[in-house]
Amino acid sequence: MFPLIDKRETGINLRRIMDRRGITVKEVQEYLGLGSVQSVYHWLNGISMPTVDNLYALSELFQVLIDAIVTHIHDLHFYTATS
Prior knowledge:
The protein is mainly alpha-helical. Helix content is 54%, strand content 5%. The protein has five helices and two strands; from the N terminus they run E-H-H-H-H-H-E. It has helices at 7-21, 25-32, 38-44, 52-62, 66-69, and strands spanning 2-3, 78-79. The chain has a two-stranded antiparallel ribbon with strand order 1-2. The protein is globular, with a radius of gyration of 13 Å. The termini are close together.
């Protein structure tokens, strides 16, 4: 059994952290060295997730643990490999 990440809730949480810290999408893009802001907007909208490297960098930027950024699916906390 393993937990699944809720991309939508993680995006909402990421936006919440950014707002509290006063960090803009452009600042995140520049900090991570991304070619455009589109990737960051995809994360915020729950379309995709940052890579592990980018999550680590974001945790440093925001001064929070990665676990404070990532949100798991609450309905069925854990799924089996056959689900």
